[in-house]
Amino acid sequence: MNHTKVAVTTAVAVCLTATAGAGLFAVSGLYNFAADEPHFPWVSATLETMRERSIETRAAKLVVPDLSEPGRVVQGAGNYAAMCASCHLAPGVEGSELSRGLYPQPPNLSKQKVDSAQAFWVIKHGVKASGMPAWGKSMDDESIWSLVAFLQKLPQMDDPQYDQAVGSSGGHSHAGGHETGGQNAGHGTEGHVMEGPMHSEEVQTAIQTHTHANGKVHTHTADPSTHQLRPASAGATASHP
Questions:
Q1: CA spacing 20 to 30 A to 202: which of 36, 47, 58, 109?
Q2: Which residue, among 87, 124, 79, has the nearest Cα to 108 in the 3D structure?
Q3: Are 141 and 162 in contact (CB under 8 A)?
Q4: Domain count, the chain
Q5: Does any domain span residue 208?
Q6: For a pLDDT cut of 70, what percent of the chain falls above it?
Q7: What's the whole-number mean pLDDT along residues 192-216?
Q8: Residue 166: inside a domain, yes or no?
Q9: How far is the C-alpha of 103 from the C-alpha of 8, rounded, in Å?
């Protein structure tokens, strides 16, 4: 009996000590949360495993609709160019200022095919502490499935095919969401639309090139809200550190 009591007392003491130590470490500020400083390998591996299992478990309950329905890929192309390409890139684009600065770095979806159900779940619900927003707060399910349909085709596209897909779409267009605003805001229960293809000549003329102090040259649209990550041969030039 005494041996059992000692063992239990020791186990409780160890747990309390570990909990107190973890609490002190959490409030100490010693752990570096900077996005340019990677997690410790064991932290990264733990978070990655938890994230993947969480997504797999919840996505397994979804029923994937027919993604070959006419119009799905076209609508998805316009929304991808407007909402996703800045982070997840497009054919012929190796990186952007935004994608390079995020940690964990977002996958290049122009080179990687994704599981349809898991892609839907991630797009709709987002991922904590990753920079991936929950688009389900502003997009209806049908629009998200159309985006998923486009993602299945994206890795097989080259630059011209991607531009053609985006150009044939209605641009940034989807229904649903919980955003508020008047008619001029372009949002509401009727959805919102940004007229015209996102890869038109108007976007190309808004391209701006700037040079960093280290000599690297970056090209992007002058207005970050319409950043399309496409190379252009003309545009204004600016230099900043």
A1: 109
A2: 87
A3: no
A4: 1
A5: no
A6: 72
A7: 44
A8: yes
A9: 42
Interatomic CA distance for residues 207 and 224, integer angstroms: 10
Q: Counting beta carbons within 10 angstroms of the beta carbon of residue 234, is it exposed (0 to 12), middle (13 to 18) or buried (19 or more)?
A: exposed
Query: In which residue are the tokens 């994704």 written?
Result: 114
Give residue 99's domain range: 69-198
Contact between 200 and 167 (Cβ < 8 Å): yes
Q: What is the DSSP track for the chain? A: -HHHHHHHHHHHHHHHHHHHHHHHHHHHT-S---TTSPPPHHHHHHHHHHHHHHHHHHHTT-----TTSTTHHHHHHHHHHHHTHHHH--TT----HHHHH-SSPPP-TTS----HHHHHHHHHH-BTTTTB--GGGTS-HHHHHHHHHHHHHGGG--HHHHHHHHHTS-SSEE--------GGGT-STT-EE--S-TTSHHHHHTEEEEE-TTS-EEEEESSGGG------S--EEEE--
Q: What gap in Å lies between CA 130 and CA 107, rounded to an integer?
A: 11
CATH number at residue 163: 1.10.760.10
Q: What is the pLDDT of residue 215?
A: 54
Tokens of 160: 């011209």
**Average pLDDT, whole number, for the chain?**
78
Radius of gyration of the chain (CA): 23
pLDDT per residue over 109-145, tens digit each?
Answer: 999 999 999 999 999 999 999 999 999 999 999 999 9
Is the backbone of residue 6 left (phi > 0), alpha (psi -120 to 50) or beta?
alpha
The residues facing 173 across adjacent strands are 193
